[in-house]
Amino acid sequence: MQAAPVRATAIPSVTDALRAVESILMSSGQRTARRNAWTSVLDDRRRAKDRAEALRVLEEAMPTRTS
């Protein structure tokens, strides 16, 4: 007797599932616009973090003035 062949199928991740639903519900232009908007949000957050860090470094480097 021969064993039945085993088929290994990967379980889709949550990201894969969301992208599949997204592709059904949205046209490609809407998907591109949403992804571009999210990329902009992430870039803005990174720049804000960089500004805060630069400000902290500058404030630490400045000598304190006593009156």
Radius of gyration: 25 Å
Q: Given the structure, what is the number of helices?
A: 2
**Helical amount among residues, as a percent range?**
55-70%
Name the structural class: mainly alpha
Beta content = under 5%
The low-pLDDT segments are none
Query: What is the strand tally?
Result: 0
C-alpha termini separation: 95 Å
Write the element-wise H/E pattern from the N-terminal end onward: HH
* Gross morphology: elongated
Largest sheet: none
Mean pLDDT: 85
Notes on the protein architecture:
This protein is mostly helical. The protein has helices at residues 14-25, 28-61. The longest helix is centred in the middle third of the chain and has 34 residues, at 28-61. It starts with 13 loop residues before the first helix and ends in a 6-residue tail after the last helix. The relative contact order is 0.06.
Fold topology:
Layout: H1 14-25, H2 28-61
What is this entry, summarized?
The protein has helices spanning 14-25, 28-61. With 67 residues, it is an all-alpha fold.
Tag the structure with descriptive keywords.
67 residues; 2 helices; 69% helix
